[in-house]
Design goal:
The structure holds two protein chains of two kinds.
Chain A (H helix, E strand, L loop, with lengths): L19 E12 L2 E12 L3 E5 L6 H8 L7 E6 L2 E2 L4 H7 E4 L11 H11 L4 H14 L15 H13 L5 E5 L7 H16 L3 E6 L2 H7 L2 E6 L2 E6 L1 H7 L4 E5 L3 H10 L4 E3 L4 E5 L4 H14 L5 E5 L3 H12 L1
Parallel strand pairs in A: 3-8, 3-9, 6-7, 7-8
Antiparallel strand pairs in A: 1-2, 1-4, 4-5, 9-10, 11-13, 11-14, 12-13
Chain B lengths: L2 H22 L2 H20 L1 H7 L6 H32 L2 H7 L7 H27 L9 H28 L3 H7 L2 H7 L15 H5 L3 H13 L6 H25 L4
Classes of the chains: A alpha/beta, B mainly alpha.
Pfam families (chain B): ABC2_membrane
Keywords (chain B): Antibiotic resistance, Cell membrane, Membrane, Transmembrane, Transmembrane helix, Transport
Membrane topology (chain B): Multi-pass membrane protein
């Protein structure tokens, strides 16, 4: 099926200094009359971590499905690992590994059998397959559960097995669709550690997430997807800079102390009901220290001090309002 | 690797996976054997005396057993392929299918694995139900080795044809329950054929239904091969039906499988 509805400019998105692991121009996809992706452009250098950030229904999963050859785009052009998505899908598949949002393990067979199945499908010899399977099971702390049916695994274990299966063919580019959604905090941190290790090995990682914190932790570059369009793209720092909302919150229990502080701190926003003051801040150590020094000098002593950094809500309110 | 050897290797891997499923969870395959065995025992031991009168020629119960077994074997195949439809649907609704679709493997290997696995399961089911039939007195001593071979070939061909139809039904069903319902005709059609009583003994309005459906010529051919009754044009009809259904099922399944997943 032809994918290339729009002509690709010869300089294209694949131009640039570093070789692109993924480059896309004007990707579009609709289901019925609902437009899911409304022309997105991507350029992901090899060996980097790229996060596609967005709320549910923003089109993140659709983007992953298109770039991983699972579904065909309605328009636009993309190259993955140097191969055209439309005409060289099989070469793209040979270079990528995909761990989708929903568990892609065979629950009826054991963890080890799942791994050996992948080894067979990557055409490894029996011996090499056994070795790779054993290594990855060990690395993902699944050796003990290797002989149990995958259906009996916990959510975190399934996710680890899922990624272990994805790694059997040593893919150069890995797509992870919401790798930590539904995981408990410990499993989430384990997953982050796994992703960091992948990057150290030179793999390009394309991940989607709803959590700014996660993108912040892992990604070199972040694109914010909203309503099928990329609302902003940049490093975590760049994104936070365009988003207001970072502030320090001072809460008082004594109304008199609150009033005194409010008159001393003129630039603070007042929240009279909860006796709290909001002082704009980017949350850096330097700024926090100078704020504390200033509070000391002004003789203000709050009962509680909390630091509020911009979160996904802030990013979205800012970006969607800017678009209007 | 050439595309043919890739296809063979990946299909063999998928077949091993399906056989592993069947071996690990034999309950579904065995459950599907329950119906043909029950019908066999019911019609021979409970209805046998009355039924034998219906096939004419002063037949007794053992003659009715001989009449019944070929139809029961075809019904066994129909039942087994219902299981195949269900397992195809289960596979398609699992996340692992997305994984297969994003791997550099032979596209059709998933379906080929299902088809070959299903045909093997059909053969195994026929052997098991056949063993029950022999245990209660079915004999086919007059058949030559060539006739036996032809009978086996016919059973495999019917299995292949019904499997491809079942795979299409499985691919077009949204969930395993729906697949099981949609594939039910594969088990009901043999009931409406010459499996239990000759077509001549049926009411006139119903005869065309029994006559012009795939199971009747297949059953008549099997009967002829095993028991020496007349085959006539049923042999060619059976082969034509099987080839037609297999091609139809293949083309249908292929087009369903090549669609983008939801």
């Amino acid at each position: 099926m032809p994918l290339s509805v729009m002509p690709m400019p010869s300089s294209g998105a694949s131009g640039g200094s570093s070789p692109a692991a993924v480059s896309a121009v004007g990707l579009r996809k609709s289901y019925g009359d609902k437009t899911v992706l409304d022309g997105i452009d991507l350029h992901i250098p090899a060996g980097s971590v790229f996060a596609l950030l967005g709320p549910n229904g923003a089109g993140k999963t659709t983007a992953v499905k298109i770039l991983s050859t699972l579904v065909t785009a309605d328009g636009g052009q993309a190259r993955v690992a140097g191969h055209d998505l439309a005409t060289e899908a099989q070469s793209v598949r040979a270079a990528i590994g995909v761990t989708g949002q929903f568990s892609a393990v065979d629950g009826l067979i054991t963890g080890e059998e799942n791994m050996l199945l992948m080894a067979d499908l990557h055409h490894l010899s029996r011996r090499a397959g056994r070795r790779v399977a054993a290594e990855l099971l060990e690395r993902f702390d699944l050796t003990e559960a290797a002989k149990k049916p995958a259906a009996t695994y916990s959510g975190g274990m399934k996710r680890r097995l899922d990624i272990a299966m994805t790694l059997v063919g040593s893919p150069r580019i890995i797509f992870l669709d919401e790798p930590t959604t539904g995981l408990d905090p410990r499993s989430r941190h384990t997953m982050w550690q796994i992703i960091r290790e992948l990057v150290t090995g030179g793999t390009t990682v394309f991940l989607t997430t709803q959590y700014l914190e996660e993108a912040d932790e892992l990604a070199d570059r972040i694109a914010v997807l909203n309503d099928g369009r990329i609302a902003a793209e940049g490093t975590a720092e760049e994104l936070k800079r365009i988003v207001p909302g970072g502030h320090v919150r001072l809460r008082f229990t004594d109304p008199a102390a609150y009033q005194a502080a409010a008159s001393a701190l003129r630039e603070a926003t007042r929240d009279d009901e909860s006796l709290a003051l909001h002082i704009p801040s980017d949350g850096s150590q330097r700024e926090l220290r100078s704020l504390l020094d200033w509070l000391d000098a002004a003789g203000v002593e709050a009962d509680e001090l909390t630091l509020h950094t911009p979160d996904l809500d802030d990013v979205f309110f800012a970006l969607t309002e800017a678009a209007r | 690797m050439s595309s043919l050897s890739l296809a063979v290797r990946d299909s063999a891997t998928m077949l091993r996976r399906n056989l592993l499923h069947a071996r690990r969870y034999p309950s579904m395959t065995l459950n599907l054997l329950f119906t043909p065995v029950m019908l066999l025992l019911l019609f021979v031991y409970i209805f046998g005396d009355t039924m034998s009168a219906g096939i004419g020629g002063g037949a007794d119960r053992s003659a009715y057993l001989a009449y019944l077994v070929p139809g029961i074997l075809m019904l066994t195949i129909g039942g087994t392929t219902i299981g195949s439809a269900v397992s195809v649907t289960m596979d398609m609704t699992e996340g692992i299918m997305s994984r297969f679709r994003t791997m550099a493997i032979h596209r059709g290997s998933v379906l080929i694995g299902h088809v070959v696995g299903s045909v093997l399961q059909c053969v195994m089911s026929v052997v098991l139900v056949g063993a029950v039939a022999v245990a209660i007195g079915f004999r086919s001593t007059d058949a030559t080795a060539l006739e036996w071979l032809a009978a086996f070939g016919l059973l495999v061909l019917v299995s292949l044809a019904l499997t491809w139809i079942a795979v299409g039904m499985g691919l077009s069903s949204p969930n395993p329950e729906a697949a099981s319902n949609n594939a039910l005709p594969l088990m009901v059609l043999p009931l409406l054929s010459s499996a239990f009583v000759p077509v001549d003994a049926m009411p006139g309005w119903f005869r065309p239904i029994a006559e012009y459906q795939p199971f009747t010529p297949a059953i008549e051919t099997l009967r002829g091969l095993l028991l020496g009754s007349g085959i006539g044009h049923n042999g060619w009809l059976a082969v034509a039906w099987c080839v037609g259904l297999a091609v139809l099922g293949y083309v249908w399944s292929r087009s369903l499988f090549q669609r983008d997943p939801k």
